[in-house]
Structure formats: C-alpha cells, structure tokens
Amino acid sequence: MSPGSRRGGWTMARSGPGWRGKYHKMERYRRCSQAAGLLALNPFFSYLFSRSTYQGPLKGVCAPGLNCYACPFTVFSCPVGGLQHGFSLLRERAGELFLKGLGVLLYVGAFLSFTGAVWGRLPCGWICPFGLFQELVHRIPGRKRKLPAGASAGRYLFLVALVFLLPLSTGTAWFSRLCPAGFLEGALPLKAIPPSFPLPAIGGFFWLKAALFIALVLWCIPVYRPFCRAICPLGTLWGWFNGMSLYRLEVEESTCDSCGACSEACPVDLGLPGEISSPRCIRCLRCVGACPRGAISAGFGRR
Amino acid sequence: MGIRSIKPRLEREGRALIVLGLALLAFLLSLLWEGPRTLYVHAVVTCLDCIGLI
Question: Which of A8, A11, A68, A301 is surrounded by the most beta carbons within 10 Å?
Fold first, then answer.
C-alpha cells in the first residue's frame, strides 16, 4: 500500500528527494523480514514426510512472535502459551508443580522482558507470522476503516482474563482454546496433514475457534491488523516496553515541520509525531520512510 | 539537542538496562525451578487446546 492510499492519497505538499522511494524500500525490507520470520520460526518441513513434529531442544525456546507451538512446522514455543501453562501450574498453590509453574513464568517473563527492553514491539511489525497473515488479508480490496475508538483497550482484558486469571483459577489455557493463530497455524495444518499419532475427534471448541477465526479474517479486510491492536496479549506485553527499549524511534524536532506525513502513513492510526513511543505502535517504521524531511529515525543508541 | 533532551535518554537507557538485568536474574532463577525444561515438556507434546480438538 502506498502512503496515504488508505485515506484517499496525499493531500499535503512533499519535499525532499526520494521520500517515496525510501518508503517503498522500507516496506519491501519489512515484507522480506516478515517472510524470513515465517520461515525461520517454521522451518520443520520434514514433517511432510515423517509426520512427526519437532522434538528437539529449540522447542523449549520462546518464539519472537505469535507462532503456535502446535504448528507441525514450528521448532519454537509460543510465549503466550508458555505464560498460560505457567499460570495453570500455579493453581497447585504449593509443591513441585507450583515451583515448576514459577520457573516457567520466570523463564517466559525473562524472554519477554529481554526482547521488550531491546526491541520493544519491533518483532510485531517485522517478524510475527500472524501479523503478516493479517496484513495480507487486509490487501483484499474493500472499504478500509479505522479501528473503533476504545477497541484497543480490550487487549488488556484479554491479557488479564484469558492469559493470567482464567488459567490460574481453572488450570486451562483459555486464550489458546480461542486463539485464531492456533487455528490457522495448528488446527488447520494438523487436520489437513495429519500426524502419525491419532488425533481426537473434532469437538465443539474446534468449531468455536473456526468461527472466531473467520470473524477475524472478515475484520481484517476493512481494518489493519485488528488482532494485534485489540486482542494480542504478546503485543500488549511488548507494548509496555516501547517507551524504554534500547531500539527507539526519535523525532528531530528542529527538522520536523509538522506536515503530518508520518501520521497519515501510520497504519495503526497513531497521532504522530507525539505518540512515537506509544504502546500501540507496532514499529512497522512506515513513519520513518514516509517523512519527507527525514526527521524520524529508528535505531539503537544516540544520534 | 541540548542537555535537557539528553537526560531523558539516559533515564530511558537506564530503565532498559535495569529491565535487562532483572530479565537475566529471572532467567537464572527460572533455571533453579526447571522453567525451560517444563516449557519444553509442555510444548513438545502437541497442544490439543491450541488445535481445539478437546
């Protein structure tokens, strides 16, 4: 999508050489990075022949993105699934299982804190396979709309209720039961290419997940990445680090002429440049490429 | 860029480094309670919750 096409094209004068080329170059890099992320997190193609999922040590390492660990091609763990498993073990209140749950929570918490403190939500924009899927669905022609006001606040409810409280109180991974990424990356491939071990018969939750997945796909056509903005617990957790991460976006105030190009290019409707470190920013870096004066920079360290 | 704009940056880097230190500490503590091993054992079995086949 070219800058501004979502809202009827550019309305303001642009200056500076090559800003449009810089924008498209950045988007090409990002698409390549997303494709590479998809392949790097799901490289286990030998499943097609062996029909056995990956059992190696990487399965104990969290993936930097929402990538279901039930996917037959993946070699990593889902950090959201790990959090739910940790909380479900804490339900034991004491004993060995409780300590193991604490261990999982510390381990996944360390992963999320480390990646968040270094990159913030950069993996959302540049690696996450489910983000890529939503972006591709959003390319289907149709009327494009903004996310309804207040919808993004719902992600805190999903995080607290489905990832923290319900697994803690019921011992069941409720977000995983409903997760559309789990349906796309786990349920569909496993039903289409069954593993060597017998799977249980399809139950009611399969159809519930299918209905939620179809609803999300229909939502993705008019709205850009609605799952990431209104639901995703991983993005919500990483978003808290956007304001402090070592990788940062900065606006050079003396260069910025407040033309609004960054705000217009922002796919998640942030009020830029003021909200440059917002937790809602997925760090797609479109604003960097869209700024005709090069006033927005992204990277580590000081300029 | 004056001194006033450098100070928040240092504060920001300081906070990030504190979080990185806490993350390292949490990782070491998780090893005591078999965090990586427990996650591996959980993840290596196909998660039926994730598939919806329950």
Answer: A68
Asked whether the beta carbons of A70 and A85 are under 8 A apart, the reply is no
SS percent in chain B: helix, strand, coil, step 5: 80, 0, 20
- As given in the structure block, the two tokens for residue A216 are 């999300």
Q: Cβ–Cβ contacts within 10 Å for residue A216, how many?
A: 20
Provide the CB-side half-sphere exposure for A283 (13 A, CA).
Answer: 28
pTM score over 0.80: yes
Looking at chain B, which residue has its C-alpha nearest residue A54? Answer: B44
Token output for A55: 């059992």
Predicted confidence (pLDDT) per residue in A98-147, tens digit: 999 999 999 999 999 999 999 999 999 999 999 999 999 999 999 999 99
Nearest 10 degrees: Cα torsion A97, A100, A101, A107? -170
Round the CA-based radius of gyration of chain A to a whole number and report it.
20
User: In B, which residues are within 8 Å of A52 by CB distance?
Assistant: none
Q: State the smallest CA–CA distance between residue B48 and chain A in angstroms.
A: 8
User: Comparing C-alpha atoms, which of A48, A57, A92 is closest to residue A76?
Assistant: A57
A residues 87-106 near B, CB within 8 Å? Answer: 89, 99-106
Q: Which residues of A touch B15 (CB under 8 A)?
A: 244
Token pair belonging to A54: 């990956």
Q: What SS3 class is residue A291?
A: coil
C-alpha radius of gyration, chain B, whole number: 20
Q: Which of A52, A102, A106 to mutate to test the interface with B (most CBs of B within 10 A)?
A: A106
Rounded to an integer, the average pLDDT of A15-38 is: 83
Which ipTM did the prediction report?
0.88
Residue A181 CB neighbour total at 10 angstroms: 27
